[in-house]
Amino acid sequence: MTLLWIGNLLFLFVVIPVVVIILRRVLTPATEIKAYADDITEHGAQFAPHLEALYELDTTRQLVRQVNADLERYAQALERLA
Amino acid sequence: MDPAHIVLLLAVTIAIVAIAGYLIAIVLILKHVVGRLTTILGAVQAVTDTSQPVGEIVEDINRDLDAGRKLIEDAVGRLEASRVPVGAASAQSSRHGVEGQAPGGPGGGTATATERPASAPAGTEPVRLSTNAERSDPERHPPEAERDPLGSERHPPEAERDPLGSEPDPPETAPRGRGWWNR
Question: pTM score, two decimals?
């Protein structure tokens, strides 16, 4: 009976405080990780809207090709003038 | 039941509830973090998919621009090599044109002007005519109908322009531009 009480007291005053301390040491970094994840989501998820203009590069390529064709015609006209 | 057992049971229950609360909080935080990481991973994947073919397109654009630049440089170089600068030729000719003319001589210093004939009617002032280059350039001097498409609306009569009602100028006796040099 005495050993049972010693075991209960050990459980109540040693094991449970150690578990609580360990859980608090886990909870503190988890809270920081949550804040960092929120921050990364807030700023990192803005990449996609900023990169929407990249779809215009195809139009830019087509326009540059048209300008090249017109430049070639212009150069040929200069040749005829010369 | 022994009161010591009851106290011990209550203490253990409170401790277990506290531990369960900590565990639940940790689980909720981890779940939130996993959701955020999933969102970030989707955004990164979208950025990767979007920016993957950009390098090839930019290289293509740079290649086209470089080819156009070389084309224009070659054409301008050939044009410069085949053409004499315009300023030198015009300065030479204008210098010869003025040279040898008397300051008060007939024609006002131009090489093609002729002396006024003796049969010219008195009182008619010679009006400077436009040169051939100016007359032959339809863009700089379009015909009268093209220059003034609005007609009298743009240039209203003198009575409409003068609200005070002053008398208009007397009409000219001889129409301008109908002198001896135009006959």
Answer: 0.49
